[in-house]
Amino acid sequence: MATAERGLAPGLRYVPDRFDRAAQEALVAAIRQVVADAPLFVPRMPKTGKPMSVRMTNCGSLGWVTDKENGYRYQPTHPETGRPWPAIPEALLALWDEVSGFAKPPEACLVNFYDPDAKMGLHQDRDENEFSAPVVSVSLGDQCLFRVGGVSRSDPTRSFRLSSGDVFVFGGESRLIFHGVDRIYPGTSTLLKNAGRINLTLRRVNP
DNA sequence: CAGTCCCA
DNA sequence: TATA
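The joint structure predicted for all components is written out below.
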């Protein structure tokens, strides 16, 4: 009766534990270097300027940013330092080659840092000009309650408790699905020095 | 155009 | 607080 209870929608792929502990530690070290060069900033909602609860930065030739004045967009430089974003770590490029099924490399890797009380409302990733390429998402640190819906905001949703090292892929018919983070479970990982979660999302921006 | 804000 |  109900739609598939266990199966994921076409194009959605959940790869638990894709990175083992050593690989996760290497990824965190790489991200620490990215953050040293491109400091975390607080993204703000268009028009209202309301701060989001995550802090973010990017690596790659383009980075996703948002502010009160100009809204959501990709740009080649950090909004506060004006410098180009640092390169995407090799391990993430290798992941993209493995799971994306897309010939060209990702242009953007958005780095979102979630403090224990940070959330991300249901939204679509649709600021790219290339929807044939999937979005590839990596979880590091504390577990989170991740919600995924369908391509319409009112579609029913399912929740997953994601753990450090897990990978989620949104491609094909699921490229534009709504998704968000309802809560962080502090203290559920020892990967990071303090409680919190890092999410990395790889995107192809231009065809 | 707005939006991942908020909140029901 | 720095964390990343």
